[in-house]
Automatic annotation (TrEMBL):
Main location as per UniProt: cytoplasm
Binding of S-adenosyl-L-methionine, residues: 30, 32, 57, 79, 104, 123
UniProt xrefs under PANTHER family: DIMETHYLADENOSINE TRANSFERASE, DIMETHYLADENOSINE TRANSFERASE-RELATED
Lineage per the UniProt record: Bacteria, Pseudomonadati, Pseudomonadota, Alphaproteobacteria, Maricaulales
Catalytic reactions on record: adenosine(1518)/adenosine(1519) in 16S rRNA + 4 S-adenosyl-L-methionine = N(6)-dimethyladenosine(1518)/N(6)-dimethyladenosine(1519) in 16S rRNA + 4 S-adenosyl-L-homocysteine + 4 H(+)
Protein location: Cytoplasm
The name this protein goes by in its record: Ribosomal RNA small subunit methyltransferase A
UniProt xrefs under InterPro entries: KsgA/Erm (IPR001737), rRNA_Ade_diMease-like_C (IPR023165), rRNA_Ade_Mease_Trfase_CS (IPR020596), rRNA_Ade_methylase_Trfase_N (IPR020598), rRNA_adenine_dimethylase (IPR011530), SAM-dependent_MTases_sf (IPR029063)
CC annotations in GO: cytosol
General function of this protein: Specifically dimethylates two adjacent adenosines (A1518 and A1519) in the loop of a conserved hairpin near the 3'-end of 16S rRNA in the 30S particle. May play a critical role in biogenesis of 30S subunits.
Gene that encodes the chain: rsmA
Pfam family, one: RrnaAD
C-alpha cells in the first residue's frame, strides 16, 4: 500500500506531545488533529492527481498528510513558526512529495516556487487570512487553479455573500470578481485544538473564465461605498466622484444605478460597470 508509511506516523496528538508543541495565539494557531476531518477538507480540492498544492501554515501537518494521502502530486508547505519544522521533516522522511519552506506565506512567489497546475489549500492563520486571499487574487497572471481555504465562519460568509445579505460588502465584491466562491464545509470551533472563540468554514474558490482585472480601482470604489453603510449610493460616492472629477449623477445614470439604492443591494457586476465608466486617467489616482 503506497501510503502505509504516512499512515504509520505518530498521530497528530502524539506529534504535539513528542515535539512539546503548544499553540501560539499570536500566530493564529488552532490545529486540526483529526485526520478524517483533514482528509475531508483535502477531498474538497479533488481532483489532486498531477496537482501541486501550496499549503500555508501546515503547523503539525494534519492537512499536509491528508493532501498527500488524497493524491497531491507535491505539497509545498510554508510555515513561519520554526518549532513545526521537525514534525514536518518527519513527514518528509516517509514521502518524497513534500517540500517544506520556512518563512512568511505572504512573501513567497509561488509561480516561481513550483510548476502549474497549482491549488492553494490551507487552514489559514486568521490574523492574515484575508490579506493573503486578496493578495493571491490580485497577482497576474493568475497562478492558482483553485483555492480551498479555511476562514472564520463570519469571514467565509462575507466572501460568499450575495447582494441583500447582511454580510455583503467589499470582500464579496472583490472575491466574486475573480472567482466563483462557495462555503463547502462548516467546521465547529470544538474540532480545533485549542478551540477558537468562533466557528470556521472552508471556502472553495474556482477562478472565473473572465475575471475583472482592475481590482485596485474596484477596491477603491467599494471602500468608498461600504465605508459608510446604510448610506445611499449618491451620498457614499459623493467624495469619490469629487476626487475623480466625475459628474456623479451622470456617472450613476450611465451605469444604470439608482442614486437612492444602498450599496449592500448593488450586484457585483454593477460595481465593475461603475469602475469601467470612470475615465481611465483618473481610475487609480489614489490608493485602495
Ligand atoms: N494547518 C494546521 C492545522 O490545520 O492544524 C495549522 C493551522 S493554524 C490555524 C495556522 C498556521 O499558520 C500555524 O501553524 C502558524 O504558525 C502558521 N502561520 C501564521 N502566520 C503565517 C505566515 N505569515 N506564513 C506562514 N505560516 C503562518
Amino acid at each position: 500500500m503506497p501510503h502505509s508509511a504516512l499512515e504509520r506516523l505518530p498521530t497528530l496528538h502524539e506529534t504535539l506531545q513528542i515535539h512539546k508543541l503548544r499553540a501560539d495565539k499570536s500566530l493564529g494557531q488552532h490545529f486540526l488533529l483529526d485526520l478524517n476531518l483533514t482528509r475531508s477538507i483535502a477531498r474538497l480540492a479533488k481532483p489532486l492527481d498531477g496537482v501541486n498544492v501550496i499549503e500555508i501554515g501546515p503547523g503539525p501537518g494534519g492537512l499536509t498528510r491528508a493532501l498527500i494521502l488524497e493524491g497531491a502530486e507535491r505539497v509545498l508547505a510554508v510555515e513561519m513558526d520554526d518549532r513545526f519544522l521537525p514534525p514536518l521533516k518527519h513527514i518528509a522522511l516517509v514521502t518524497d512529495r513534500l517540500d517544506i519552506h520556512h518563512g512568511d506565506g505572504l512573501k513567497v512567489d509561488f509561480a516561481d516556487a513550483l510548476p502549474a497546475p497549482r491549488k492553494i489549500v490551507a487552514n489559514l492563520p486568521y490574523n492574515v487570512g484575508t490579506k493573503m486571499l486578496i493578495n493571491w487574487m490580485t497577482i497576474r497572471p493568475r497562478f492558482w487553479e483553485q483555492m480551498v481555504l479555511m476562514f472564520q465562519l463570519e469571514v467565509a460568509a462575507r466572501i460568499c455573500a450575495q447582494p441583500g445579505d447582511n454580510a455583503y460588502g467589499r470582500l464579496a465584491v472583490l472575491c466574486q470578481s475573480v472567482g466563483d466562491c462557495r462555503i463547502a464545509m462548516e467546521v465547529p470551533a470544538r474540532l480545533f485544538t485549542p478551540p477558537p472563540k468562533v466557528d470556521s468554514a472552508v471556502v472553495v474558490i474556482d477562478p472565473l473564465d473572465e475575471p475583472f482585472e482592475d481590482l485596485k480601482s474596484l477596491g477603491e470604489l467599494t471602500h468608498a461605498c461600504f465605508g459608510q453603510r446604510r448610506k445611499m449610493m449618491r451620498a457614499s460616492l459623493k467624495g469619490y466622484a469629487k476626487r475623480k472629477n466625475i459628474d456623479l449623477a451622470a456617472w450613476l445614470a450611465a451605469a444604470d444605478v439608482d442614486p437612492q439604492a444602498r450599496p449592500e443591494t448593488i450586484p457585483v457586476e454593477t460595481f465593475q460597470r461603475l469602475v469601467s465608466l470612470v475615465p481611465r486617467e483618473t481610475k487609480s489616482s489614489s490608493s485602495t
